[in-house]
Sequence to fold (153 residues):
Amino acid sequence: MVRLSALVMTLVISFLSLTAIAAIDAYSFPDEGMRKRYNSLIDELRCPQCLNTNLAGSDSMISKDLRREVHRLVLEGKSDDEVRDFMQQRYGDFILYNPQVKGSTYVLWFGPVVLFFIAVAVLVRLVSRRSSPAHEKVLSDEDQERLNQLLSK
Fold:
């Protein structure tokens, strides 16, 4: 029984390692500088299908195609900015983890800061309302006397 379970575990591990080997792209580069540029680019470009995974970490079909496209552009001698611009024109601002600051991305860049300041302002206002005695109503002398009479009964 122990031998059978050990055999099954060995087979499972073997099959899992085969899928990991199959996921690696093997692109050739004429020099190490191009390989580093390629790796840097696929690390900073986002997979359009996987939402929050970069091209280097995604196994989707589109990310494989995009890695192949980045490889082609790097081999053609395109600069990093040209590769980013090419990808942005095709797939929009979503493909960049750090999109350019422009009219359509103001909310993305400045929205969290604005929301933070609004939250701080609301919090300060709530705290100041609770601690200020302005909400406590002061009784007039007549009302205080009447209250004392009611309480003494």
Notes: The two ends are 88 Å apart (CA to CA). The first helix runs from residue 2 to 22.
